[in-house]
Amino acid sequence: MSSAQIEIQLIASMVAIACAIPGVFLVLRKMALITDAISHSILPGIVIGFFITQDLSSPLLIILAAISGVITVVLVEFIQKTGLVKEDTAIGLVFPALFSIGVILIAQNANDVHLDIDAVLLGELAFAPFDRLTIGGQDVGPKSLWIIGTIVLITLGLLLAFFKELKVSTFDAGLASAMGLSPVIMHYGLMTISSITTVGAFDAVGAILVIALMIAPAATAYLLTNDLKKMLLLSVIFGVSSAIMGYWLAHILDTSISGSMTTVLGLIFLLVYLFAPSKGLFSVLYRQKQQRIEVSLLTFLLHLGNHQEEEERHVKHLNEHINWQKVQSKSVLDLALKNNMITIHKDIVTLTKKGETFTTEAIDYIVDNKNSEIENMKDRFFLFRG
Amino acid sequence: MNLKEYLELVFTDYTLRTITLGTAVLGAICGMLGSFAVLRKQSLLGDAISHAALPGIAIAFLIIGTKNSSVFLLGALISGLIGTFWIRGITSKTHLKSDTALGLILSLFFGFGMLLLTYIQKMPNANQAGLESYLFGQAATLLESDVWLMIIITGISLIILLLFWKELKLLLFDADYTKTLGFNTKFLDILITSFIVIAIVLGLQTVGVVLMSAMLLAPAAAARQWTNNLATMVVIAAIFGASSGVLGTAISASHNNLSTGPVIVLVAGVFVLFSFIFSPGRGLLFREIRFRKNRNDLQLHKTLSFMYDIARTHENISHPHAIKILNNFQGFTRKSLQELEDKNYVTIEGTMWSMTESGFRTASNLYNQLTKEGNE
């Protein structure tokens, strides 16, 4: 590995960390799409800043862009407050307008500006190591590494300092304001940090892929855990590992680094989405199937409990009476048999003692409708599950 | 170039005519279907889908190896639909919320599309030039055949809309009721979503991936301010969309270095701003005026009832009182006093006021109303 390669991976990982931390809170606060809006609408800020400074990585540029990010948030909230349109429409109206202004500003001055929209939107990480920061004639590393490093430090510092406050205001805004924490300050603080991160990351990964780095690691982590600290840690890990893997994928395929980073993020999300224990697609589908069978079993047992007549309890009759297909009634019968809830004698089904207690308790549960009881009950009665 | 010359040019110049017609049709279909997106709270679905269409375009190019906009549209349509249904899957099967799902699909698909685009760019194949125009759109690349395609698809979607009008309307406002009536809500849902996806895909070539969502939203959001009737809203949105297409094309054609897509979006934005402020029913301006009028009315009534309280204690209700005694009462201003006099509730002579018969009656009615409500 050359030093440029190491530097690129370092910058990519830093960007991933800087994005993952605010991303977690945005996902939890259901404001993920505001990053979409911010990342588009910082464009006019960047363009105006660039006209003033003629330098894509000057701090003034970052400040101006962050301001236009915050302006976006304020505008969106203003439109939401008027109640003229729904909240997501407000987001969808504000950012294309600001983005258009940015595009037009660039196009109008295309001749004397070295700024092209592709670079802003898509970024080019591969060139980042060539823009070096020199202090007193000495080369201290790529400029963007310093910028994003500073942002990571600020974000981490703020996270550690305000962890408790952030946690409370994210999960219970009412409690937070009752405890004297201003939700408004928390909200705008988070928005400012998100804008600054977006701006800091834009020349590395491009404004649109910032969205991926903010949302995807957090969403992936959210599928795996419900603990805020674990979620933060996991999303940082996902971000960094996809940054490094993405770099090598881009190296092999000779493609854009930011594109392949996002693709790796997408693959990780897809895997977790499908296979995550308890929250993944497969386990949700499995659980839903299991619950369907459990409900069927309960219906079946209740039916048995209600009827003493023999013809109502005949195996064949059950098919017709509860309107089940053959396969389903067979699997329900099997399940009930395995769990010793019924006995079958000459095709006549009878509840066992265990079956009777289960049915009575199940009816009690249905009448009381307390969620906690059913899980205990299932554990006590079921040996085998569907 | 003045207006007349421009109009002549629109009818004579092939490129300008095609673009004007294309953007107008696009604006109309977007406005039409966008109304449904906005009312179904799927506003940002447009944004997600337009980004999600990118890998479809790239894959279509990888398969056929040449540029062909109808094949690209098909690719975009397929990947847009995959994106849409994945969003559905995420929101219905996991605890991730719709905003996260939208953002995920948007950015992940777009990133994958960028990966493919850069991969294509490195290929030794001269045909790939211009694929990037799908990112920001290039109305100038519109051909007459593209416009015909747009017109045909607009026609089809119009027919479908009219055929399923009643069902779609019902689904829009009361999905549960629609289901209990026995309509296949899943089918209707997929139908309208697919048409929204088609409209988005159609616009990619003209305004591009990034700005497409505004094309879908802005005309509908503007139209929403002028009416509470779905049919009217759809028509107005189509008109707004078409006119922002035409105006945007005109503005960008008459200036150098103005790309059409962003200008169209800004024109649509102006429509929205205008509607937000000036629409008579919901607009901010008239709302503020109504608000002020109500406040003034309230103050007037407060002053009147205060006067009534004083006048009541005298045998002659028209007994004059000093204006000064009203001073310790907040609702009183010189203007409101003047207004009371205009309404013939009081008469003013110098620094004295006295209540008239009609003012006393009005005030006592007011008073009765207040006490009655208080007792209830």
UniProtKB/TrEMBL annotation, chain A:
Topology of this chain in the membrane: Multi-pass membrane protein
InterPro entries, alphabetized: ABC_BtuC-like, ABC_TroCD
Domain of life: Bacteria
A GO term from the CC aspect: ATP-binding cassette (ABC) transporter complex
Gene3D superfamilies: ABC transporter involved in vitamin B12 uptake, BtuC
GO BP term, pick one: transmembrane transport
Name of the protein in its database record: Zinc ABC transporter permease
Automatic annotation (TrEMBL), chain B:
Predominant cellular place of this UniProt entry's protein: membrane
Gene Ontology terms: cellular component: ATP-binding cassette (ABC) transporter complex
Gene3D superfamilies assigned: ABC transporter involved in vitamin B12 uptake, BtuC
Subcellular location: Cell membrane
Residues that span the membrane, as ranges: 21-39, 45-64, 71-89, 101-120, 147-165, 190-218, 230-251, 263-285
Keyword Transmembrane: yes
Topology in membrane: Multi-pass membrane protein
Record protein name field: Zinc ABC transporter permease
Organism for this UniProt entry: Aquimarina muelleri
